[in-house]
């Protein structure tokens, strides 16, 4: 197999266009930005703003935007999006983000010389790969499989030329292979991003909650699923704290204000209407429809300050005495809901 040596030099413009590059991430590590800086310093607030806008633009338009002129801001904003996505913990949102991101990268790569695309595949994706004298790529089959676009017959291994474990990929198809490889690489980066609960700054958490609420409202099928789970009394989708409140409510208990707020804001956040939440509270012994409706509308942001309230995070649930469980890797009841709805309910242990 004849191969050619690659001579590629990446510059700061490349780091800005391709913020996932190993070189780019290593470069900005030198600036020593910490998690506490995010949201607590002018630069950190800018990163959080950018990351929020990136994710919301992906949700609303399916596009990944680039911000500003400075490559360091762009790379650090990208890393901040990974933190936010990891905290939200919804696979469908991660998938949507990774698709939008890799498409953007694919569009940029299609304008690059093949040597640069190869360099990225080798150095960042870690693929074993070389370029033959015709300009076609020879990709180790395991790495080839990481980049195969889904649902396409022509990419199946049986339909490709395979020699000594390497798959020949024509020059014009190679960028597409790398694009899918980048999508999986980004999903893996999100999966690997884990932050200790106590280290998450408050401002970052507020952004997590805001994005989670926006995403849930758009996921009609999730809402329909939650409704049917509720009406069929299959409440496994809900975290134990919420299940416990529902069960106390249906056994005729009068819930304290914090518990009512936690339950109403959770149900509104997963897409229940004011009337549906009202229906849930009708079993309350001291139920008064006018008062209850006013309170629920207030939480939904339809009255007063017009602020839509988000459910408490786990830490607050515990401090109000509403949680006696430990849900693995969960920091917010909404996060539990997303994971359970995607068929990955978190492990739960009761705290004695
Ligand atoms: S850990 Fe969080 S999600 Fe789980 S029961 Fe407690 S408050 Fe609810």
List its salient traits.
binds iron/sulfur cluster; mainly alpha; 2 domains; four-stranded antiparallel β-sheet
Would you kindly provide a written description of the structure presented here, covering whatever features stand out?
There is one protein chain. This protein is mostly helical and 352 residues long. The chain has 2 domains: 12-127 and 141-149 and 172-192, no CATH class; 223-350, no CATH class. Helices cover 56% and strands 5% of the residues. It is built from 16 helices and 6 strands. The chain has helices spanning 12-17, 22-29, 42-61, 71-88, 91-109, 114-123, 141-147, 171-192, 202-218, 220-231, 240-250, 257-269, 274-281, 289-299, 314-319, 333-341, and strands spanning 129-131, 137-140, 162-163, 166-169, 325-327, 348-350. The strands form 2 sheets. The chain has a 4-stranded antiparallel β-sheet with strand order 1-2-4-3. A hairpin with a 2-residue loop joins strand 3 (162-163) and strand 4 (166-169). The longest helix has 22 residues, at 171-192. It is elongated. Bound molecules: iron/sulfur cluster. The site of iron/sulfur cluster (SF4) has 11 residues, from helix 11, helix 15, strand 5 and helix 16.
